[in-house]
């Protein structure tokens, strides 16, 4: 995920996704199922709200003292025999990791599913050095085989159904007789991956958590592929955003309850792998932890916006979001889609085409209700909208802020509307004017088409005409009638 | 009680019937309704679209109009949410403690109609008569911002002759979202189509909600799709069979009487 000036805005990307009926069906089915599971396993928890609140406070504390916790983490990891690297941005992270892999001489590495490696474009950076990164998470493997991008945090291939996956496997794994039975599909992937695990000398992972106190790093997953990657190879390289650090081992008690229930709707995820540096005779003999900034310290500067860094990537907000459910992840043109992506991506990347993302929400608030760490997503969406519009109004800043935030026409209309609403006399005059002007557009009492900004409304909706009498007209004259 | 009526701008302009119904309901209960004539808009359109400068000016204007009100009632959950949730935030960054106090005090006296009836006045039975099958869309701001809970459904439950039919996926957003409907029109319409499908599945003759904004969006879509009932305005409470679905604000149903219909 880079600052791409060339990437289209959300409104420009959404129509193609919406027109894909298969995608809509796949997404609708998948999100509906996972919502119900999440609701069931969170409602059964008597202390769910208390857990959320503790998690929120823990994250707030981490952000307030991030510098201290990171140094503590570095010391603890080093003490336990690991090596800590610091990467200011994507290029530095890629250079560190590909340097480490190149030094071993291997041409293939296995990977645990990691959003952070997507964020920096690690697979492409490795490929540029002739190193093939093999994704081992089933859905991530599907995406890699199809040459597509992930569309969901946890279920990167949520936009695909099993028939589509069967066709892909038939072609790429040369299995012409494969059926779309899920067990058979999983077995095909398993056989393919087993060989990779056994041959691999280097593994690359992300991290769900890292404990400052002990230097312990943790990955939670469902398939066991992560456990293979984290234990079998000789060298393990973990790339982690600096915001993932937690103060103490005991904090896991809270987060390991919140994460699986919010993410997959499971009481506990099948595999939780925790490791502390290196242990002779057990697992990798060399461990590198790469700590990534890549815009995070800039996000930290905004006292409200920094809540976006509290995210534990559970994807509950994606699954509940009515916009995500219709459009899917690709229209966000970012590693982090959905409601959290709409507040995280523009802040991480700074002004650019992702400025349209905070506007890609109806502010319905469903995301905030399900967030396990209580990120106030709608409030931050509004905060970012305000910042972006202010930026787009300033001619000096306009060049740097996005075209996605606010158009010239919108700024003009909003200013005019503000002026009209600034006086009840002007408002009444505007109503009179509107009643006159609308006759140009009226058909059978409704407006079917409007130009410019308002054409978005009449694209698929008629607009009610202004009646002859407003409420205030009625109020003014009610004494005259025998009401 | 003296109730200051806040009739949000687009309600005033496009849906006078909702205001009339609100006045009728409150007056029948013996309260005095006042309509501060200088009111215009709370500034939600500007605030939600990122235009905080205009929103701040409208906030100050709004405060000066409603400052003296004992209680302020509006037939719109989203405009009430603006006053209760967003005004304090806008005021807090103004750096004026006095403004903040005034806003906080105003927010405490501001109510959406259905929560005012059931929560403050503690009435459910309004003597309404509406012999139709109705489905209720719980709008996002009413449920997740100002938490009106089941107040609208309790009020509907007390209406003589009325049958409430459950709306599938009721709490999912209808796709309106203010300027979202224009800026992200394709996505908004996709959400709207799914909501209208649910409304039709409910089998109801009438769709109601506590926000005319969402209803305007849905009615506009239903009309384009040819499934909106278009009777003789908002008068009368007898619907023809098979004539599409009628869209009405909750207040208009609650104000309906056996004699004389809605008004």
- Which structural category do the helix and sheet elements of chain A fall into? alpha/beta
Number of strands of chain A: 13
Rg of chain A over CA atoms, rounded to whole Å, is 26 Å
Order of SSEs of chain B, N→C?
Answer: EHHEHHEHHEHEHHEHHEHEH
| Molecular shape of chain B | globular
Protein chain pair with the most extensive contact, residues per chain = A-B, 64 and 68 residues
Average pLDDT taken over every residue of chain B = 93
The end-to-end span of chain A amounts to 64 Å
**Helix amount of chain A, in percent?**
40-55%
CATH class of the largest domain in chain A: Alpha Beta
Helix content of chain B: 40-55%
Radius of gyration of chain B: 18 Å
Please state the overall shape of chain A, judged from the principal axes of the Cα atoms: globular
Q: Structural class of the helix and strand makeup of chain B? A: alpha/beta
Strand order of the largest sheet of chain A: 1-10-7-4-2-3
Continuous helix count of chain A: 23
**Could you give the order of strands across the largest sheet of chain B?**
2-1-3-4
For this structure, the CATH topology of the largest domain in chain A is Rossmann fold
Proportion of β residues of chain A?
Answer: 5-15%
Topology:
The complex is a heterodimer of chains A (483) and B (263).
Chain A lengths: L9 H10 L1 H23 L4 H17 L1 H14 L3 E5 L2 H15 L3 E4 L3 H6 L1 H7 L3 E4 L2 H9 L15 H11 L9 H18 L2 E4 L3 E3 L4 E6 L3 H7 L3 E7 L3 E2 L4 H13 L7 E6 L9 E7 L3 H5 L15 H5 L1 H6 L10 H12 L16 H5 L6 H17 L1 H4 L9 H14 L2 H14 L4 E2 L2 E2 L7 H4 L4 E2 L6 H7 L6
Parallel strand pairs in A: 1-10, 2-3, 2-4, 4-7, 5-8, 7-10
Antiparallel strand pairs in A: 5-6, 6-9, 11-12, 12-13
Helix pairs in contact in A: 3-12, 9-10, 16-18
Chain B lengths: L1 E4 L3 H6 L1 H13 L3 E3 L9 H6 L2 H15 L4 E4 L2 H16 L4 H12 L1 E3 H8 L12 E4 L3 H6 L5 H7 L5 E2 L15 H4 L1 H18 L3 E4 L2 H14 L20 E4 H5 L9
Please describe what this structure looks like:
The complex is a heterodimer of chains A (483) and B (263). With 483 residues, chain A is α/β, with parallel strands linked by helices. Chain A folds into 3 domains: 246 residues, Rossmann fold (3-Layer(aba) Sandwich); 101 residues, Fumarate Reductase Iron-sulfur Protein, Chain B, domain 2; 58 residues, no CATH class. A 6-stranded parallel beta sheet of chain A has the order 1-10-7-4-2-3, sandwiched between helices. Chain A has a 4-stranded mixed beta sheet with strand order 8-5-6-9, sandwiched between helices. In chain A, helix 3 packs across helix 12, helix 9 crosses helix 10 and helix 16 packs parallel to helix 18. The termini of chain A are far apart. Chain B has 2 domains: 119 residues, Glutathione S-transferase Yfyf (Class Pi), Chain A, domain 2; 122 residues. Chain B has 13 helices and 8 strands. Helix content of chain B is 49%, strand content 11%. Chain B is globular, with a radius of gyration of 18 Å. Chain B has 263 residues and is of the alpha/beta class. About 3% of the residues of chain B have low confidence. At the A-B interface, helix 1, helix 15, helix 17, helix 18 and helix 20 of A face helix 1, helix 2, helix 3, helix 4 and helix 8 of B.
């Amino acid at each position: 995920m880079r600052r791409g000036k060339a990437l289209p805005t959300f409104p420009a990307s959404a129509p193609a996704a919406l027109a894909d009926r298969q995608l809509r069906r796949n997404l609708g089915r998948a999100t509906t199922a996972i919502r119900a599971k999440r609701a069931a396993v969170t409602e059964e928890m008597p202390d769910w709200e208390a857990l959320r609140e503790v998690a929120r406070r823990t994250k707030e504390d981490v952000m307030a003292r991030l510098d201290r916790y990171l140094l503590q983490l570095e010391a603890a990891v080093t003490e336990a025999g690991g090596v800590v690297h610091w990467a200011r941005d994507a290029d530095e992270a890629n250079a560190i990791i590909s340097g480490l892999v190149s030094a071993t001489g291997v041409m293939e590495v296995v990977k645990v599913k990691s959003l952070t490696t997507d964020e920096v474009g690690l697979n492409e950076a490795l490929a540029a050095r002739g190193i093939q990164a093999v994704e081992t998470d089933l859905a991530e493997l599907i995406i890699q085989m199809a040459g597509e991008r992930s569309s969901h945090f946890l279920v990167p291939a949520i936009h695909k159904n099993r028939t589509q996956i069967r066709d892909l496997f038939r072609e790429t794994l040369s299995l012409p007789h494969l059926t779309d039975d899920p067990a058979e599909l999983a077995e095909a992937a398993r056989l393919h991956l087993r060989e990779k695990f056994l041959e691999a000398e280097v593994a690359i992972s992300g991290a769900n958590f890292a404990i400052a106190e002990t230097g312990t790093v943790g990955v939670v997953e469902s398939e066991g592929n992560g456990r293979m990657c984290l234990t079998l190879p000789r060298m393990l390289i973990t790339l982690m955003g600096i915001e993932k650090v937690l103060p103490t081992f005991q904090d896991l008690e809270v987060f390991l309850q919140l994460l699986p229930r919010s993410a997959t709707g499971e009481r506990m995820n099948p595999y939780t792998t925790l490791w502390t540096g290196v242990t002779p005779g057990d697992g990798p003999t060399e461990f590198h932890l790469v700590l990534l900034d890549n815009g995070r310290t800039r996000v930290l500067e905004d006292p409200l916006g920094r809540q976006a860094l509290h995210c534990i990537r559970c994807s509950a907000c994606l699954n509940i979001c009515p916009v995500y459910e219709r459009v899917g992840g690709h229209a966000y043109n970012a590693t982090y889609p959905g409601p959290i992506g709409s507040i995280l991506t523009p802040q991480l990347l700074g002004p650019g085409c992702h400025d349209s993302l905070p506007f890609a929400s109806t502010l319905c608030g469903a995301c905030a209700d399900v967030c396990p760490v209580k990120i106030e997503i709608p409030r931050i969406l509004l905060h970012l909208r305000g910042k972006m519009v202010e930026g787009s109004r300033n001619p000096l800043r306009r060049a740097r802020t996005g075209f996605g935030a606010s158009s010239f026409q919108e700024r003009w209309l909003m200013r005019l509307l503000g002026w009209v609403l600034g006086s009840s006399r002007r408002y009444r005059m505007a109503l009179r004017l509107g009643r006159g002007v609308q006759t140009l557009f009226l058909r059978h009492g409704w407006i079917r088409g409007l130009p410019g900004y308002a054409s978005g409304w009449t694209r698929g909706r008629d607009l009610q005409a202004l009646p002859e009498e407003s409420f205030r007209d009625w109020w003014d004259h009610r004494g005259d009638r025998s009401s | 009680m003296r109730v200051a009526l806040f009739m949000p701008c687009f309600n005033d302009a496009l849906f006078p019937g909702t205001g009339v119904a609100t006045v009728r309901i409150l007056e029948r209960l013996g309260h005095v309704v006042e309509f501060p004539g200088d009111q215009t808009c709370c500034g939600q359109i500007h605030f939600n679209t990122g235009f905080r400068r205009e929103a701040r000016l409208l906030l100050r204007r709004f405060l000066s109009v409603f400052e003296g009100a004992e209680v302020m009632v509006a037939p719109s959950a989203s405009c009430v949410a603006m006053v209760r949730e967003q005004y304090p935030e806008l005021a807090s960054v103004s750096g004026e403690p006095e403004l903040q106090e005034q806003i906080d005090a105003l927010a405490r006296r501001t109510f959406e109609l259905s929560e005012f009836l059931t929560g403050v006045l503690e009435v459910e039975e309004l003597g309404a008569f509406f012999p139709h099958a109705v489905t209720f869309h719980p709008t996002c701001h009413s449920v997740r911002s100002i938490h009106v809970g089941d107040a609208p459904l309790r009020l509907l439950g007390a209406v003589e002759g009325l049958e409430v039919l459950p709306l599938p996926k009721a709490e999912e957003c209808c796709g309106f979202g203010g300027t979202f409907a224009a800026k992200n029109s394709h996505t908004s319409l996709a959400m709207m189509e799914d909501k209208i499908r649910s409304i039709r599945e409910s089998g109801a003759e009438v769709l109601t909600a506590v926000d005319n904004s969402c209803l305007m969006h849905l009615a506009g879509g239903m009309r384009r799709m040819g499934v909106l009932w278009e009777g003789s305005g908002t008068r009368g409470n007898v619907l023809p069979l098979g004539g599409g679905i009628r869209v009405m604000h909750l207040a208009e149903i609650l104000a309906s009487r056996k004699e004389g219909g809605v008004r």
